Amino acid sequence: MRHGQSQANLAHQEAGDRPLHYAPGDHEVTLTGLGRTQAAALGRMLAALPAGEAPEAVWCSPYLRAIDTWRVAQGEWGSRPLPVTVDERLRDQEAGAFAPFNLAAIRERFPEELARREAEGPYAFRPPGGESLADVVVRLRDLLADLRERAAGRRVLIVAHDSVVLGLRHVLAGGPDADLGAVLEFAPVLNGSVSVWDRTRLVRFNDVTHL
User: Fold this and answer.
1) Which of 39, 54, 93, 188 is most open to solvent, judged by the fewest CB atoms within 10 Å of its CB?
2) C-alpha to C-alpha distance for 167 and 164, rounded to whole angstroms
3) Angle, CA 180 vertex, CA 179 and CA 182 arms, to 5°
4) Quick one: which of 157, 119, 139, 147 has its CA closest to 39?
């Protein structure tokens, strides 16, 4: 699942095409009221699952908006507490120097970097001090190898970010990294959405019918 709407998501939405400088660090941004409502809906969805489909373990991004999404969902679900692994490899794609800014502000401050992004492609481009989507895929491959060993045979719920969901779609599909850019066709991954795989078979993607 992608986390519920965050304060930064809302600030970017409200800024629209106006330049925005959003000061809080990416790891410390929490949920809006709507984000908590979305997280509660996720919890009710989990509560409605048959026992044979419910998660048996949780792996979560270390970022506050993901942790808070799980806390709210867990409280609404009301099940016995599940083991939770907080893993750095599930963090959002690091934006580096771009992190405090929306696209309008980036155009003003880093026009040469946007030109480089156009030349390299959005999946390969790495902003100064940040990560490319290809970098995210590298750490997700490492994460999945651990999951296969440490959670073999169990249903795992991952609570993370849009870049992680897109990266997982690419990795689990097993295609070559030369095709990584094609995964951006499935963006945006919506706040509070759920994507499900049965091992590597995609069951549903970016589903918000529970909201």
Assistant:
1) 188
2) 5
3) 75
4) 157
